[in-house]
C-alpha cells in the first residue's frame, strides 16, 4: 500500500521515497504503544511534513543574521519568539515580536528581543530566537478526512468559518483522490466563486489547494488507522496553501474484512444465476396460492426454455414435471435454486445446494435479519462462503431476466423485453417497478430483488449488467450500500459504458430513520452519497417516478454529440416552462446563430419568436413542425431537440406524432440521429400521441414540461460522466 | 400617505409626529432642486435620524468631562478625533484614538489628543474633540430597499460580506413590512442560524433588527422617489443594530399610474362575465372549422341555459338561433361578448359593446401585443376604459365556468363540475389543463385564458373566485404579473380563505429570457417572486404537473387540525421514500408516543417496525390495514395519515381501496375527518384502485411516493399560511 501511495505522491520522486511512510509509521506506532487516540501538535506537524503538507515554517536562530536568513527562506511576515527555559511569560518579557516584514526588522527584532530578555531576567539561559512564518490574509478553508462505515476513507473540503459550518457547504470524495477529483472539489462547494476571487480579492492557488487535498487523501489511505484528520484552518492565498492547525485522530481497532470475490468470479457466477441452463425450485408446489406454486407457474408460463427441477419431499411430479426430494437427487447440473420454503428449512437445503455445486440461491423466504433473526442469516452466509454459492436475498420477490424468458419469482410474470435492468432493495418498490413497466410498456432486461443483501449486492449486479449485451441502462433503488467503496469502484467503471441511475432512499434525516428501522442498516450522510455518486458517474434520481422515467427514456435516446439544445414549440407558454426545465437540468440552450435564426424564420409566421425557443406559434400546419424539426436535425450545430406541441385542429396530436416520427426516420436514413424529447399540451388525445412517439424512439409526455427535459438531462449527465461530451 | 406611515412607526407616538416626514421631505426637495440622483452621507444620516434608524452617534466635546459624558451617553467603545481646521492629517498629528473603553480612558485621551495637537502644531485652532461611537463586533448584515417594476417597493435583508454576495442569500418583502414580516426575514435566509448565535457567538437583537427593517420599509413607502436604499453594513449585536453606512438613490420621474378598479367593481363585473345571463358571440358562424362556429357549438352543446346572441353582418340565424348585425341591435341586456373576428375588426365591435353597456369582452383574437401590434392593444384598452368594459385577453382560448355549463371558448368542451378554478397565461398550457382535467376526471369550476392580459389579470380572477361558492381552490399559471403589488395584496386576503397555487414560469434565467420573447414582459427576479408569494400565502408549484396535481388533490382533502403525520405502510421500502418526501415537503412525522406504539403493535406482526412509519409488513390481510388506519384516525394526536400500499395476493389493490374507503366513511360518521393520501406500489391493478380511492376522497397515486406527499404538503402549506394551524 505504501508503494502505491508513493507512486501517486510527488514526494515519492525524491531519493528518500521510503522515508515519508516510515516517518508516519513510527509516529503511529508510538501513539499506539502509548494507548493514545490522537496525535500531539508536533506529531501532527511531522506527519504533515512527511507527506509534503505545508504547515507554518519555523526554525531557531542563534544570531540576528541567522534569524534574517531563516525569515528570507520562509517569506515575510514572520514572528520572533525568545527560546528560553527560564522565561515562561514570553510576551511579558518582551520576548515576542509579530509581523516583521523586512530583513532589517528581523535583525533589529532579534537584538531587541535578546536585550529585553536580559532586562527581564539577567541570568536567563537563552537558547536562541524562534523564527516562525506568520499566516495572514488569504481565504480560510478546511481540508479533512473521515472514515465512513460504507465508503471507507473520504477526503473533505470546505470553506472555513461560521458561515460554512452553518450552511454545511462541504464536499467529499473517496480517498485517495486524484488531482482531478481534488480540483472538482474546489468547484464542488456552493461558495466556489469565492476561491476565484471576488470583490477585488485574489484567486487562490488552485494547484496548491488541490495538491494538499490529494496528499491528505493519500495519507489516510496509506494509514487506515487514521480515522479522522482536520486541517483547519488552511490559509489559501494566491501563491500557496498552508495548514495552520492539524488534528489527527486514530483508531487502531482492526477493520472488519469484507468478502469480495474477484470481478471474474462475479461475472462467471452471476451469468450462471441470471442465464441458467437449469433451475431448481426448492419447495415447488402444485397447490394454488403457495409461493412454490407461483414460482413454478411463472417459470413454465413465462416461457423459460431451460430445465426446471421441482424439489419436494414427497411429490413425484409437479405441474407435469418430474420432481425430486433433494437437489442432490437431480441427475444433471443445476445453475440456480429458487427457495420457496419456510426460513427454518433454508439452511439445510442450502447445504445440499452447496454439495450439488449450485452457483446461486434465490432466497425468497423472509424471517431473517429483517425480523431480527440475524444469526439465521449469518448461518446462510457461512454456508454460502463454504460452498461458494452466491446468495440473492433473503426476503425478496426473486428476479426476472427477460432475454431468457425467466421469471424466477412468485410475483406476476413480466415479459416486455427491453434493455433496462432494474433492481430494488424493497419488495414493494419491486412491485411498483413491475406495475410501472407494464403500464408504460417499458422494455426491461431484468428486474431483481435484493432484499436483505446477505451476499449479492448492487455492485454484483453492476458487474453482471456491464457485460450483459441485453442491458443498456441499470437503474437501482437502494436504501444503503453495505460496501459503498466497492459499489463506487465498480460504478465508476460501469458508468463509462452504460448509464447507472440510483434512487437512494433514506436521503433525508426522517427517511434515514425509517431506513434504519427497516433494514437495520445505518443510512449514511446524504452529502457523502451525493458526492460519491457524482464522483462515480452515477445519475441520481430524486424520486421513484424519476428512477422509472429515466430507466424508460434514457436508453431510447441516442447519445448526444454536443451540448447545444434547441426548443421548438407551438406553444410559447410551453417554451418558457421547457426553458425553465433546461436550467433545472443543467442543459445548455444554444444561443441561436444569426444564419440559423434566419433559416428558422423562413418557416414560421413573422410574429413567431426569434432565438431559442423557436416559437412557431399555435396555429401552424403540420408542415411547419416538419420543416423546423428537419432544420433542427440537419444543422450540425444543434445536438438535441426539445419539442413543445400545442393541440390544435390544424395539427391534431396524432398528425404531429406521425410528422415527428417521419422526419426522424428520414434523417436516420441520412445517418442523422439526435436525441429528441417532446412535451404535449392538449386534450386527452395527446396521451395516445405521446405513447406512439415513445414507441418510436421519442420520449414524449402529456401535460408535463418537466419530465421530458429531465429524461434528456439524465442522458446528458451520463454522457458527460462517461467522457462522451 | 405620511399619516399612514406615522401610524405604523413607533416614532409617530412622539409629539413631533409630523417632523420626521417633513425632515425627509425637505432633504428630498433639496436633492431634487439640485438635480441630483442620490443623497450625501450627511443627508442620509438626517433621513435615518428622522425615521429612527440608528446610525453611529457622535458629538464634539470642549472638555475632557464633556467628552466623557458624551461617551457615556453613546456607550463604549468610542473613537476620539481632533477637530481642527488647521490639522489635516489627524492620525499623523496623534489626533485620533480608537477603542476607548472607560470614562478614565476618554478623559485621559482627550487631554493627550490636545497635547499631541499642540506638539504637532502649536498655533493650530482647536474646535474640540469629536467623540464617535465605535462599531465593533456583532454580525454584519444588509438592510435595503428596491423598486420593482411589478411589485413596487420591496425591503431586503441579508448577511453582510463576501459569502452572502456569492451565495445570494437575501430575502425580500413588500414594503411597508409589518413587524412579523420583518421577523420572518430574519428566519428567511439560508444562514439564519448565524443570527441566533453560533460557536459561542451571541444572538443578535432580533427586535432591533426587525424594527430597522420595518422603518426602512416605511421610509421607502412614504417616499416613492427613494428608488433604492442600502444600509450596508448594519452591525447587529446582542443589544442593538446600527447602520454604519447609508446610501440613498432617488428617482423623481413620475410613476406610471395603474388602473385599479375597486374590489366591489371587480366583483360586480366579473360576476356578470363569469355568470352571465346573456352572451353575444361576435363573429358567430355556422361554418365548421371557424372559431365563431366552435364557440357557438360549445355554448349550445355545453348546455348553457342563458341567452345566446349570435352577431353576424349578414346571417339571420345561426345554428337555429336568431342572429343580429350588431350587439346594438339586440333588444335585451348582454353581459358578455365573445369575440371571434379578425384583429382589425375588434376595436369597432368593442366600441359597439361599450355603447350597449356590455360588462365584459372575451377577446379570443390574436394579432395584438404578442405579434408586436402594441398600438392595437392599447386602442382596445382605451375603449375598455372609456366604456368600462373589462377585457379578457386578447390572444386567448376563452373561458369555462362549469356551474353555468358555460364554455365560452373555441376549444373542446369541458363539463366535469368541481371546485378547482384554473387559469393560464398561455393557450398551450390551457389546453394541457383541459387534457389533464379530463384524463384525471378532475372537477373544475372554471378554466380561464388570460393571454396578453390587456386588462383582466390574475388578481381580478382571485377577487372573483374568492366570493364564488363553487370554487375551493385557485390554481394559476403565469409568466409575469403586470401589477404584482395588486396581486400580492389580493392573494394575501384570498389565500386566508382558499388555497392559491401558482406556477410561475420563467423562474430561471433561461426561462425568463423565453418569457420575455413570448410576452414582451420582463420576467422579474425569481427570488422576489418566491418571497412575495410566501408573504402572500401563495403556494408555489414547481412544475406544471405539480400545479395540476395540487389543483386536483388539495380540495379533496379536509383541512388538517395539526402537524402530526403518521405513515402506515405495508412496504417498508415505501415507508422510507414516503419519509423522505415528508422532509422534502416540510411535513412533520409524529414522534410516536409509547402507548400509541403499543396500540399499533397489537395489530402488526412482531417483526413489524416500531415508531413512525408504522410498518405493518407485506404479507398482511385487509384487517391489518383496517385496524391500523382506524387507530390512526381515531387517535386525536394524529392529524394526517399517509398510506403505503404493497400489492399482495392477500390484500389485492381494490380490496385495499375498499377497506380504506370503508374506514374513512365509518369515521366520518363519527365526525372524524382527517387528510389521508396513499401511495400504491404494485402491478397495474393499482391504477384502478388509486382512481377509486381518489374518487372517494383519498388522493392516491400508483408508482409514486412523492406526489401524494407533495399534495398533502400543499394542503399544509395553505393551512399554515391561512393561520389554521
UniProtKB/TrEMBL annotation, chains A, B:
SUPFAM superfamilies associated with the record: Glutathione synthetase ATP-binding domain-like (SSF56059), NAD(P)-binding Rossmann-fold domains (SSF51735), Succinyl-CoA synthetase domains (SSF52210)
Keyword Phosphoprotein: no
Short name of any one Pfam family annotated for the protein: Succ_CoA_lig
Residue span, ATP-grasp domain: 45-275
The organism's place on the tree of life at top rank: Bacteria
Keyword Manganese part of the UniProt annotation: no
InterPro entries listed in its UniProt record: ATP-grasp, ATP_grasp_subdomain_1, CoA-bd, Ligase_CoA_dom, NAD(P)-bd_dom_sf, Succ_CoA_lig_flav_dom, Succinyl-CoA_synth-like
Record GO terms (molecular function): acetate-CoA ligase (ADP-forming) activity; ATP binding; metal ion binding
Keywords recorded for this protein, A-Z: ATP-binding, Nucleotide-binding, Tricarboxylic acid cycle
Family stated for the protein in its record: In the N-terminal section; belongs to the acetate CoA ligase alpha subunit family.
PANTHER family on file: COA BINDING DOMAIN CONTAINING PROTEIN, PEPTIDYL-LYSINE N-ACETYLTRANSFERASE PATZ
Protein name: Acetyl coenzyme A synthetase (ADP forming), alpha domain-containing protein
Gene source species: Paracoccus alcaliphilus
Amino acid at each position: 500500500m505504501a508503494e502505491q501511495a508513493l507512486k501517486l505522491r510527488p514526494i515519492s520522486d525524491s531519493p528518500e521515497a521510503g522515508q515519508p511512510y516510515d516517518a508516519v509509521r513510527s509516529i503511529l506506532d508510538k501513539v499506539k504503544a502509548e494507548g493514545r487516540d490522537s496525535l500531539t501538535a508536533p506529531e501532527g506537524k511531522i506527519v504533515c511534513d512527511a507527506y509534503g503538507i505545508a504547515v507554518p515554517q519555523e526554525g531557531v536562530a542563534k544570531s540576528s543574521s541567522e534569524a534574517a536568513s531563516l525569515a528570507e527562506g520562509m517569506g515575510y511576515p514572520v514572528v520572533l519568539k525568545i527560546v528560553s527555559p527560564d522565561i515562561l511569560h514570553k510576551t511579558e518579557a518582551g520576548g515576542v515580536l509579530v509581523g516583521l516584514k523586512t530583513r532589517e526588522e528581523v535583525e533589529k527584532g532579534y537584538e531587541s528581543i535578546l536585550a529585553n530578555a536580559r532586562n527581564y531576567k539577567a541570568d536567563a539561559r537563552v537558547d536562541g530566537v524562534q523564527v516562525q512564518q506568520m499566516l495572514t490574509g488569504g481565504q480560510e478553508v478546511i481540508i479533512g478526512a473521515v472514515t465512513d462505515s460504507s465508503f471507507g476513507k473520504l477526503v473533505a473540503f470546505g470553506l472555513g468559518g461560521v458561515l460554512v459550518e452553518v450552511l454545511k457547504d462541504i464536499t467529499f470524495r473517496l480517498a485517495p483522490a486524484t488531482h482531478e477529483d481534488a480540483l472538482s472539489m474546489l468547484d464542488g462547494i456552493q461558495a466556489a466563486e469565492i476561491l476565484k476571487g471576488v470583490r477585488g480579492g485574489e484567486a487562490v492557488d488552485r494547484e496548491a489547494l488541490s495538491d494538499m487535498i490529494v496528499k491528505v487523501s493519500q495519507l489516510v489511505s496509506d494509514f487506515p488507522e487514521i480515522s479522522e484528520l482536520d486541517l483547519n484552518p488552511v490559509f489559501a492565498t494566491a501563491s500557496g496553501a498552508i495548514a495552520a492547525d492539524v488534528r489527527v485522530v486514530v483508531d487502531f481497532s482492526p477493520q472488519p474484512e469484507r468478502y469480495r470475490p474477484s470481478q471474474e468470479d462475479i461475472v462467471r457466477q452471476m451469468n450462471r444465476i441470471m442465464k441458467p441452463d437449469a433451475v431448481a425450485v426448492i419447495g415447488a408446489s402444485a397447490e394454488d396460492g403457495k409461493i412454490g406454486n407461483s414460482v413454478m407457474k411463472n417459470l413454465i408460463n413465462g416461457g423459460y426454455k431451460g430445465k426446471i427441477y421441482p424439489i419436494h419431499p414427497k411429490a413425484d411430479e409437479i405441474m407435469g414435471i418430474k420432481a425430486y426430494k433433494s437437489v442432490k437427487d437431480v441427475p444433471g447440473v443445476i445453475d440456480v435454486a429458487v427457495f420457496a420454503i419456510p426460513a427454518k428449512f433454508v439452511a439445510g437445503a442450502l447445504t445440499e445446494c452447496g454439495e450439488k455445486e449450485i452457483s446461486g440461491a434465490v432466497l425468497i423466504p423472509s424471517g431473517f435479519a429483517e425480523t431480527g433473526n440475524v444469526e439465521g442469516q449469518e448461518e446462510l452466509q457461512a454456508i454460502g462462503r463454504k460452498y461458494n454459492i452466491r446468495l440473492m436475498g433473503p426476503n425478496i420477490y426473486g428476479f426476472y431476466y427477460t432475454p431468457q424468458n425467466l421469471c424466477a419469482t412468485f410475483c406476476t410474470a413480466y415479459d416486455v423485453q427491453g434493455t433496462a435492468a432494474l433492481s430494488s432493495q424493497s419488495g414493494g418498490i419491486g412491485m411498483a417497478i413491475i406495475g410501472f413497466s407494464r403500464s408504460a410498456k417499458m422494455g426491461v432486461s431484468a428486474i431483481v430483488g435484493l432484499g436483505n443483501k446477505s451476499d449479492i449486492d448492487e455492485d454484483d449486479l453492476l458487474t453482471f449488467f456491464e457485460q450483459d449485451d441485453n442491458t443498456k441502462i441499470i437503474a437501482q433503488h437502494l436504501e444503503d450500500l453495505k460496501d459503498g467503496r466497492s459499489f463506487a469502484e465498480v460504478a465508476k467503471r460501469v458508468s463509462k459504458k452504460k448509464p447507472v441511475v440510483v434512487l437512494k432512499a433514506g436521503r433525508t434525516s426522517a427517511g434515514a430513520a425509517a431506513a434504519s428501522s427497516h433494514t437495520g442498516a445505518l443510512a449514511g450522510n446524504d452529502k457523502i452519497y451525493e458526492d460519491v455518486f457524482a464522483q462515480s458517474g452515477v445519475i441520481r434520481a430524486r424520486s421513484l417516478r424519476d428512477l422509472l422515467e429515466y430507466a424508460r427514456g434514457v436508453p431510447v435516446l441516442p447519445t448526444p454529440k454536443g451540448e447545444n439544445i434547441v426548443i421548438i414549440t407551438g406553444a410559447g407558454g410551453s417554451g418558457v416552462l421547457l426553458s425553465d426545465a433546461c436550467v433545472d437540468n443543467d442543459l445548455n440552450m444554444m444561443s441561436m446563430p444569426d444564419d440559423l435564426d434566419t433559416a428558422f424564420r423562413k418557416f414560421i409566421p413573422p410574429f413567431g419568436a426569434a432565438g431559442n425557443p423557436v416559437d412557431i406559434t399555435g396555429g401552424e400546419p403540420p408542415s411547419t413542425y416538419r420543416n423546423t424539426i428537419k432544420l433542427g436535425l440537419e444543422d450540425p450545430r444543434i445536438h438535441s431537440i426539445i419539442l413543445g406541441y400545442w393541440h390544435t385542429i390544424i395539427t391534431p396530436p396524432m398528425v404531429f406524432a406521425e410528422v415527428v416520427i417521419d422526419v426522424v426516420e428520414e434523417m436516420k436514413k441520412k445517418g442523422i440521429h439526435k436525441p429528441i424529447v417532446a412535451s404535449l399540451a392538449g386534450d386527452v388525445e395527446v396521451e395516445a400521441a405521446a405513447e406512439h412517439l415513445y414507441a418510436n424512439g421519442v420520449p414524449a409526455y402529456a401535460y408535463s414540461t418537466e419530465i421530458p427535459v429531465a429524461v434528456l438531462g439524465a442522458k446528458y449527465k451520463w454522457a458527460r460522466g462517461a467522457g462522451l461530451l
